[in-house]
Inverse folding.
């Protein structure tokens, strides 16, 4: 019995030590720090400067990956952004990657198993309020089921589509096609449906490939997320620019988000974002990018502005 107690005690000490290490890592590497936004960071109506006739595939659109993921598990995995959805909208972000779990009849924002302390209803209310106040703008929401339902009271797709219609009303576009122009898109919320059974939005569930680049109907997607090196990921981003410059697709979704597959902590987005975002800003400021949707981790006002200003050079 005493041997068993000693072993249990050692196991407990090891667990405490491991948790302590993870907490220390979390404090040191919990993300890319956010500063308080000021008036110079506000890009509330930047789309008002775009001509109505401009095709969407000729617009540089700032977006965020796991847009609602502000919390992590011990600082190791889960967090992808430092600013709230409302702050991102004010900064100029217009594409949102929303990951959900159905709990009973409520849709919660999650990143895999990490709860983000945010409801889909709250996200939609923020977006509705913003578009109502800024009708020159449009928003694209990509919706994915990111965790198995917990005691669901209705199918996931029914819960999503009820929430969309209930909260957005006439602002919701149910079209299965990407708008052809800025004028057609203005004042609306457009959906990219990455969930099964979707009856509205641009269909993007069947055929979405894993950690690669691929064509999906009118979309082209670059989403290498488990990478060997930052240099390789920068090459993937630049290759998507070449595709975008051909203007073959209605939209090019260029995910700049990723993590080092051999890195530690695993799935630790801040490590790569701190290296990729400055390089991306340099490319944008140097006029070497092509129009696409930039889907990034840990966006900053400076990065968003660099993307937006490419539309007006």
């Amino acid at each position: 019995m005493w041997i068993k107690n000693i072993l249990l005690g050692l196991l407990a000490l090891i667990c405490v030590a491991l948790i302590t290490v993870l907490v220390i890592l979390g404090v040191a590497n919990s993300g890319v720090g956010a500063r308080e936004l000021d008036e110079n960071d506000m890009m509330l109506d930047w789309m008002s400067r775009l001509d109505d006739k401009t095709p969407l595939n000729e617009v540089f659109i700032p977006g965020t990956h796991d847009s609602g993921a502000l919390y992590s598990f011990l600082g190791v995995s889960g967090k992808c952004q430092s600013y709230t959805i409302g702050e991102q909208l004010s900064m100029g972000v217009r594409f949102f990657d929303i990951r959900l779990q159905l709990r009973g009849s409520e849709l919660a924002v999650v990143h895999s198993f990490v709860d983000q302390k945010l409801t889909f209803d709250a996200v939609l209310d923020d977006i509705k309020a913003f578009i109502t106040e800024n009708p020159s703008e449009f928003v694209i929401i990509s919706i994915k089921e990111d965790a198995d339902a917990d005691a669901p009271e209705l199918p996931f797709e029914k819960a999503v589509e009820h929430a969309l219609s209930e909260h957005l009303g006439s602002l919701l576009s149910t079209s299965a096609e990407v708008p052809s122009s800025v004028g057609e898109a203005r004042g609306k919320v457009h959906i990219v449906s990455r969930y099964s059974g979707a009856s509205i939005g641009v269909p993007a569930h069947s055929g979405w490939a894993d950690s690669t680049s691929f064509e999906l109907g009118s979309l082209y997607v670059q989403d290498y997320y488990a990478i060997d090196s930052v240099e390789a990921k920068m090459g993937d981003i630049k290759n998507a620019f070449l595709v975008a410059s051909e203007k073959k697709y209605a939209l090019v979704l260029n995910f700049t988000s990723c993590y080092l597959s051999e890195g530690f902590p695993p799935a630790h987005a801040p490590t790569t974002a701190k290296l990729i975002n400055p390089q991306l800003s340099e490319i944008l400021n140097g006029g070497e990018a092509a129009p696409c949707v930039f889907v990034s981790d840990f966006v900053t006002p400076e990065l968003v502005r660099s993307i937006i200003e490419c539309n007006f050079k």
